[in-house]
Amino acid sequence: MAIISAAGLARTFQTKRGPVEAVRGIDLTVREGEILGFLGPNGAGKTTTLRMLTTLLAPTGGAATVAGCDLATDPAGVRRACGYVAQSGGVDPQISVREELVTQGRLYRLTKAQAVARTEELARDLDLTGLLDRRAGALSGGQRRRLDIAMALTHRPKVLFLDEPTTGLDPGSRADLWDLVRRLRDEHGTTVFLTTHYLDEADALSDRLVVVDAGVVVAEGTPSALKLEYGGSIDASLQDTFLAITGRSAAPADAAPVAV
Amino acid sequence: MLLHDIALVYGRYLRQSLRSRFALLFGVLMPLLYLLFFGPLLTDLPLGGRGSSWQLLVPGLLLQLGLFGSSFAGFAIIIEKQQGVLERMRVTPVSRLALLLGRVLRDATVFVFQAVLLVLAALAMGLRAPLAGVLIGFVFVALLTASLASLSYALAMKVRTPTEFGPAVNAMTMPAMLLSGLMLPMTLGPAWLDFLSHLMPFRYLVDAVRDAYVGSYTSTHMLYGVLAAVGLTIVSVTVGTRVFRTSGA
Description:
- The structure holds 2 protein chains of 2 kinds.
- Chain A is of the alpha/beta class.
- Chain A has 9 helices and 10 strands.
- Chain A has a 6-stranded mixed β-sheet, with helices on both faces. In chain A, strands 2-1-4-5 form a 4-stranded antiparallel β-sheet, with helices on one face.
- In chain A, helix 6 links the parallel strand 7 and strand 8 (191-195).
- In chain A, helix 3 (97-107) crosses helix 4 and helix 8 (223-231) packs across helix 9.
- Chain B has one domain.
- Chain B contains 13 helices and no strands.
- Chain B is mostly helical.
- Chains A and B meet through helix 2, strand 6 and helix 3 of A and helix 1, helix 6 and helix 7 of B.
């Protein structure tokens, strides 16, 4: 069953130097409980797509539904169904972890008591219990990311959008975060939609990949299917496959495999 | 739901203000310096108003406090945009209007608190004014703050960097201060300057608070002041609401 489906989703920004088509027309479906890796070179329109799917940015074309709620007609429903962690995170460094989590619960319309209970629960789940009274600014990169994700999980969303969740993390924290993402899916059935520039991450974590370039979907499939189709062999590296798909190397996308 | 959300956002930002007590008091510093080092210069000058020079200066300083303080309120939003806090809140079901009004009410609270401190200092310097007039003055400060803070947040949502925001706000606040006669009544000046200042909505607020400080609560100045303040608030909050509702970028 499709939990996200988008058809022709597009966004054009009007700038002083004329219109910029950040996203030209994205068609995609994400199945419930899937971990989807959303890849593409810088400027391909990944973040813009994410911001449209989370209601932060109104599309200028096309349509999409998230958890059965239409982006255009039921943004409130979409907001209830999804959690979003932006590249920059989203916590005030001066505020304590506890206060941010409780306020977040209240923003999701929990009562004070429910918000406090949910904070304890999230802290236990995401290993933040000992850090609740610290300022968010005093956390390490990995702890900070866990807090960002805890904030997004406050209302037990069906879909979690993660925009480059492991950028800037050390290898240990990255591995922990991968485990966390898998655990969310395995234990709660959460659908995870994540963008990343780390192809090993996409390879290790995703059930399926969608590659975008210049604002459109240029390839999609399981990591092995993409490797076979574009990289020339199931043993091709995702790096070479990616380069072949986006044409960012000497060889054109439809020519012989870039590397075997 | 809207009231719940406003209270929630208000609480978050009020706690933020209370955390930085220094900044809370620092805001009063500029008008306080005017009170200490500029106020005494006026005591024996013929200013043409009724009452003492303090009854003329203090209303101006109160509105100066509101004008300069709340115009820069938007800086906080620019920082929150960069931290991702704003977007994180905007993906929750919280009312967009509450995200604006909670902040604006916090600003009004902070500036009325600072206005109280300023009036207490002025009392020590020699101000004598009727209590009702002083309270009316606070209401005007609250309305002015709410209006300007709304506009400031709206502008901050539209600009990308603090370096664009600062000069833009300065370019608006300086003429506003000079043309509204905050320091000295504009009636002292030549006719053309007095005329120009009537194009500045804050002028009517200053005149109204000056009347309140000498106990004329039913004057024409008061009527125009109330109309200007209420009109300004309606327009500004409407502009702010529009921007907060629609602005995704």
